[in-house]
UniProtKB/TrEMBL annotation, chain A:
Ranges for domain ABC transmembrane type-1: 15-204
Protein source organism: Actinomadura spongiicola
Localization (cell): Cell membrane
Gene3D superfamilies noted in UniProt: MetI-like (1.10.3720.10)
PANTHER family linked to this entry: L-CYSTINE TRANSPORT SYSTEM PERMEASE PROTEIN TCYL, MEMBRANE COMPONENT OF AMINO ACID ABC TRANSPORTER
Protein name per the record: Ectoine/hydroxyectoine ABC transporter permease subunit EhuC
Keyword Transport: yes
First-listed, main subcellular location of the protein, grouped into a coarse class: membrane
Automatic annotation (TrEMBL), chain B:
Database matches in Gene3D superfamilies: P-loop containing nucleotide triphosphate hydrolases
Region (Disordered): 1-39
Pfam families tied to this protein: ABC_tran
Organism of origin: Actinomadura spongiicola
Similarity comment: family membership: Belongs to the ABC transporter superfamily.
GO CC terms in record: plasma membrane
Name of the protein: Ectoine/hydroxyectoine ABC transporter ATP-binding protein EhuA
SUPFAM superfamilies: P-loop containing nucleoside triphosphate hydrolases
Length: 239, 305
């Protein structure tokens, strides 16, 4: 056990890598989810096709395989991504963003049609309808499934050791290797992932609380289209 | 094709004075007192002056194979108050939804004033309207819905100012002032910072009426606006609408199952069945001595409940 505690600097470095991957990965996933989710609600068929292509491709491919592609295969066909961090963030963000896009699309579609009709009656432009009424209300529906995805993405970062990054998982393996202890390092890494997940959960809860206040209601836990959409497992290997 | 004749057939000559009668509004305190919950209506808050007429010309609307409106023709005069009655599925609400551009027109022409709603001129031809044309035409029309449809992500004040600021380009201060005046009129000045979910159905509908009026439409569409209300809240909303009808020059189209209200508010009543007008006339005639059996049956069924 003492070896585990003495190597706290390694743990910190590993946790920092995991946290960075999570934050950057989520940022990329959020941008992609909004862009392609909105595309999925477009009136133009070819914009909706863009949404389908992105979602089906990146949801249907294993994150680990994506990671191998970006790291090993693409450089051979002339597309070199410089750092392992960028590679991993791309693979994780693209994959989780595909799930997120479905959450965004489903949530926007789940806003009652009457709300859309009220925006037409007030002569809002299509952009104003989305920006002022539909998206804010859809956001409330998105948050719980987004919370799932954020934590899925965080746990999914455990695959990055395969391209040589030293994250929490890799640190636990290393310590097991040189200390000869097995139970202690793996127990430690289990707890650390759990703690990070709880911190992420706190942010999500805070956001939900803010949105509930905006909508003038207490938190409700009714199932919706969007929660069903997020029921699918997230990024690859789980912690 | 000619625009609808904006003078003939308007049974409300006293309304056609338009802006010249504007001064009289603030003196009509006796009306307001009868209104009960509603407070005084200031002249600036209600649209006055030339309201456009409406004309449907061979209007067809289908939902799949179901033909809801079959070459429907009818005219509403400028400033006229018309109530549409009839069994559900007879196409009344569809007429309002076509006018609010919530449903697409399949065939025929809908005139608002001397312009077509769903078509625009290109050279000598009429072509289907683009978004820009619809946006221009919608400026004249407002609608109050059965389910209120307030925006739950905004408080009462922002529900009333969002449209005027973002769509009409009013300054924040102007929009807030207008909102205050309208909330005062509907008797909810103290709810300005409340959230829609904190209001009763009747209060929400009053806010929704204020929100529609904040856009200063010239045509107001009322789609079963008291149907979703608890019985004891219906009268307050109806009184408010009576006041508004009395003190504005709005062209009013109203779908309702409240026959007493229809009688009070309308200049003319149209009885619909299966997308056709079965009978039309002044409310006293339709409700007093309807000539068609279909109307008699319908009124009997409605009044029995």
């Amino acid at each position: 056990m003492s070896t585990v505690l003495d190597s706290y600097e390694q743990w910190l470095d590993g946790a920092w890598v995991t946290v960075q991957l999570t934050v950057y990965g989520c940022a990329l996933a959020l941008v992609l989810a909004l862009a392609f989710g909105l595309a999925g609600t477009s009136r133009r068929w070819w914009v909706r096709v863009l949404n389908r292509i992105y979602v089906e491709f990146f949801r249907g491919t294993a994150t680990l395989v994506l990671l191998y592609w970006f790291f090993y295969a693409l450089p051979l066909v002339g597309l070199k991504i410089t750092s392992p961090m960028t590679t991993a963030v791309l693979a994780l963000g693209l994959n989780v963003g595909a799930y997120g896009a479905e959450v965004v699309r489903g949530s926007i579609n789940a806003v009652p049609r009457a709300q859309y009709e009220a925006t037409v009656a007030l002569n809002f432009t299509p952009f104003q309808r989305m920006r002022r009424v539909l998206l804010p209300q859809a956001f409330a529906l998105m948050l719980p499934p987004f919370g799932n995805l954020v934590i899925e993405l965080m746990k999914g970062t455990a695959i990055v050791y395969t391209i040589g990054m030293v994250d929490l998982t890799k640190v636990s393996k290393n310590i097991q290797g040189f200390s000869g202890e097995t139970v202690a390092p793996f127990l430690a890494v289990l707890v650390l992932y759990f703690v990070i997940a709880q911190v992420l959960q706190l942010f999500i809860r805070y956001a939900e609380w803010r949105v509930d206040r905006m909508l003038g209601r207490r938190p409700s836990r009714e199932p919706s289209v969007s929660t069903v959409a997020a029921g699918a497992p997230g990024a690859g290997v789980s912690g | 094709m000619p625009p609808p004749d904006t003078t003939a057939g308007s049974p409300t000559p006293e309304e056609s004075g338009g802006a010249s009668t504007g001064e009289g509004v603030s003196t009509q305190k006796s009306d307001v007192a009868k209104g009960g919950a509603t407070k005084g209506v200031a002249a600036t808050e209600l649209p006055r002056g030339a309201a456009p007429g409406i004309r449907f010309e061979k209007v067809v609307k289908r939902f799949g194979h179901n033909v809801v409106l079959r070459e429907l023709d009818f005219t509403v005069g400028p400033g006229e108050r018309v109530t549409l009655i009839g069994p559900s599925g007879s196409g009344k609400t569809t007429i309002l939804r076509l006018l609010m551009t919530l449903e697409k027109l399949d065939d025929g022409l809908i005139w608002i004033g001397d312009e077509t709603l769903w078509h625009m001129k290109r050279g000598d031809k009429r072509v289907p309207a683009n978004q820009k044309h619809l946006h221009e035409m919608r400026k004249q029309v407002g609608m109050v819905f059965q389910q209120f449809n307030l925006f739950p992500n905004m408080n009462v004040l922002r529900n009333l100012t969002e449209g005027p600021v973002r769509v009409l380009g009013l300054s924040k201060d102007e929009a807030v002032e207008r909102a205050r005046g309208l909330l005062d009129m509907v008797g909810l000045a103290d709810k300005i910072d409340a959230h829609p979910s904190q209001l009763s159905g009747g209060q929400q509908q009053r806010v929704a009426i204020a929100r529609a009026l904040a856009m200063q439409p010239k045509v107001l569409l009322l789609d079963e606006v008291t149907s979703a209300l608890d019985p004891e809240l219906v009268v307050g909303v109806q009184d408010l609408l009576r006041d508004i009808a009395r003190q504005s020059d709005l062209t009013l189209l109203c779908v309702t199952h409240e026959m007493t209200f229809a009688r009070d508010i309308s200049d003319r009543v149209l009885m619909f069945d299966q997308g056709q007008i079965v009978e039309e006339g002044p409310p006293d005639q339709i409700f007093g001595e309807p000539s068609e059996q279909r109307t008699r049956d319908f009124l009997q069924a409605v009044l029995a409940t």
